[in-house]
Fold:
Amino acid sequence: MKVRQAVVDDAPEISIFLQELASLGKRSSPSDQEFVCGQYIDHPDNIQCAVAEDEDGTILGLQILKMATESNIYGVAQGWGIIGTHVKPNAARRGVGRTLFAATLNAAKSAGLHKIDASIAETNVDGLTYYDAMGFCTYRTPKGKVCKFYEVTV
Ligand SMILES: CC(C)(COP(=O)(O)OP(=O)(O)OC[C@H]1O[C@@H](n2cnc3c(N)ncnc32)[C@H](O)[C@@H]1OP(=O)(O)O)[C@@H](O)C(=O)NCCC(=O)NCCS
Structure:
């Protein structure tokens, strides 16, 4: 498995597996290519948007790390990181999320971040368990969500 920066040309492939996640009830946000480019690959607040790919170049998952700006819509403290993770359903539990987080953590350290927020739907057991396994801890629970944070140490 290789991790690299996502590029706009990845949007069609990413969009397809996000639609698969949605059809399995594991995603509620839009999954179209425009959303993938605007919110993930090319978001102006991005610190990094990484994809993991198989030996044959198939994209297995992506992880986005954004900087929380003053006006961020997530209610995250300014200057924290904001993380999102999306793994192709047939690649789950193969260490894709774990591999992506190692790369994201390096980017967070390079950017000088101290804390990273992960906001997860309270019903998303996979997501909650994944972020717990990565070392995140719950710090607030707005309606329907569990917000966890990761303390970045150098
Ligand atoms: C949650 C998600 C990112 C996990 O990705 P993944 O590639 O399957 O995770 P990994 O294989 O790297 O797992 C790392 C660890 O997380 C935990 N974990 C991940 N998925 C789990 C699950 N379904 N059940 C229990 N533990 C799980 C385990 O501790 C695992 O370690 P182990 O396999 O050695 O036991 C993936 O299932 C996904 O994209 N789900 C849909 C979108 C989503 O919920 N995103 C996150 C919240 S916004």
